[in-house]
Amino acid sequence: MLKTLAAVLAVTLLAGTSALAADISGAGATFPAPVYAKWAEAYKKQTGVGLNYQAIGSGGGIKQITAKTVDFGASDKPLKPDALNQIGLIQFPTVMGGVVPVVNLPGIGAGQVKLTGDLLAKIYLGEIKRWSDPAIAALNGGVHLPNLPITVVHRSDGSGTSFVFTSYLTMKNAAWASKVGANDAVEWPTGQGGKGNDGVSAFVRQTPGSIGYVEYAFAKQNKLTYTKMQTREGEFVDPVAPNFAAAAAKADWAHTPGGSFYMLILDKPGATSWPITAATFILVYKHQDNPAKGQEVLKFFDWAYKDGNGLAEQLDYIPMPEAVKAAVRKKWQEVR
Amino acid sequence: MTALPADQTPKGFAKRVLRPRGATFDPIFGFLCGAAATLLLAALTGVMISLAIGGWPAFAKFGPAFITSTRWNPSPDVVGGEFYGGAGPIVGTLITAFVSLILSLPIAIGVAVFLTEFCPRILRRPIGIAVELLAGVPSIVYGMWGLFVFAPLFAQLVETPVASWTPPPFMADFWNNIIIGDMVPNGSGILSASIILAIMILPFMAATLRELFLTVPAKVRESAYGVGCTPLEVVMSVTLPYVRRSAIGAVMLGLGRALGETMAVTFIIGNAHIFPKGVFAGGSTIASTIANEFAEATTPLHTAALIALGFVLFIITFVVLAIARALLGAQRQA
Predict the structure, then answer these.
(1) pTM here?
(2) What would be the CATH architecture of the domain defined by B72-333?
(3) What ipTM was estimated for this complex?
């Protein structure tokens, strides 16, 4: 009896360690977690190599890869070249998404209200307080906007979504840049904080006259009332997949600072480019303590670049353009 | 054994007979119990010291402003850089905890009195079990229920009527600044969070109070009934005075949970890092701030500020407990 038990235990332990040895581990951003999970499932079926990804947030991902407790880190916020070199990391983008302003205005449907980046910043600064404000009316001739106070809703948790959104406002409005700035969490001048995309959309849904911002996939799947945004060329565009791809195509990935892939896909040229688009990033060490493991990580993302587009699109992520993938594969040669 | 001198054998033998069987294990048992208590103390001190060390960069950088300022700016790139002042969350924590206590204590006493004095025997067990089940519901469930079910109802049935009421002139200032503040009628805010907290701590207090009421000796209560007391008189002049000293423990249990409650509050309080501008306005608590920002805190100072807030919460809980004990002592002497 004891012998059988010991044998069973030994076998399980051995099986456990061998599986662990092959699996790759990562931690970080929550935004791409669903697509990483889908990729991992398909990849395991094909290769037998599993992925253990913990969606603990971008900040946590950076901390964990710095501490070398995972094989790769994931962050929605790209690291600047200095920071990368300091730790000895390289970064590369995997998929893209975008941030979409959503509103609750009685009688107004999706895509009926037009906004500019500057207006959005003024609303979030608390300078524009009512939907009947002449600045909003001037853009929206023919749309009857209710005379409601504007309730601003933002993310309460530190989030890559907030980072992208505040980066855009920083770009479009000088007062925002000097007073609030761009970060995962900022000192919001006004409004209420909801936890996660769910929390923001719940507050928006419950508050007539409110405006919030959520990830594109969340807005699409929940059919939220989005606004049109003004492109750099002055057109007003809808947040739909081709417009995110258009923005990504205009981003100059070949000339990022120090070849670091540091890139914010904000306010890119192009008549249909959605102005608040963003990629999410993977962080790996240039000099791997365990080179075989390092190559396993790259193999996984190589597979994802090659065969993962369909799965990403099913979940409403935007795959990276082929040219970017080629540049990233070249960058991978630096990993040893 | 054989080496023992012959003349000592009877003495040793007698000793062995007199000692109870488990006696050898008594010192071990005592040691284990002592170790458990020491471990608890050591853990408490350890947590406190590590929080103080972890939060030290924030305390050192901002000094008293960490407690008094309401500016909370985690963004390093703006003029002035990062700044962390915790007055908003600290005040929010105290207000929500006390409001929830005020709301739930009378109901908890009511539930406990009903269960011990008035409840038909057949209902006693089901209600008792329901109370205990309610205590077992995870806080995230209360949070989701609060956000998706309670908040819309609260907005429609309470906040909208309250917002449209025009107060008489003599209390207009109080009403507009202290009560309404910058309320957004969507069901979130300090008062909503306090009500959710009250629901969450209610079963803890009710269950503990019921247990306490059951400790009142039957003959004491029966004597009171025997001399013609009504149930109200029995509760007011026998049961409550009898358990008053231990009841503070039940209240502390509730207050402790209210002070530290995280998820449910985060969903519904509105998460504004400001000094609360009214009972209906949005605010934040220490626990909700930590839950919101810890995962994405990338700069060392941001992490330190959150740990420092944790330390402040520790101190608040400690002081509240101490005050409660002091009040209790005063009552006992009176």
Answers:
(1) 0.83
(2) Orthogonal Bundle (1.10)
(3) 0.77
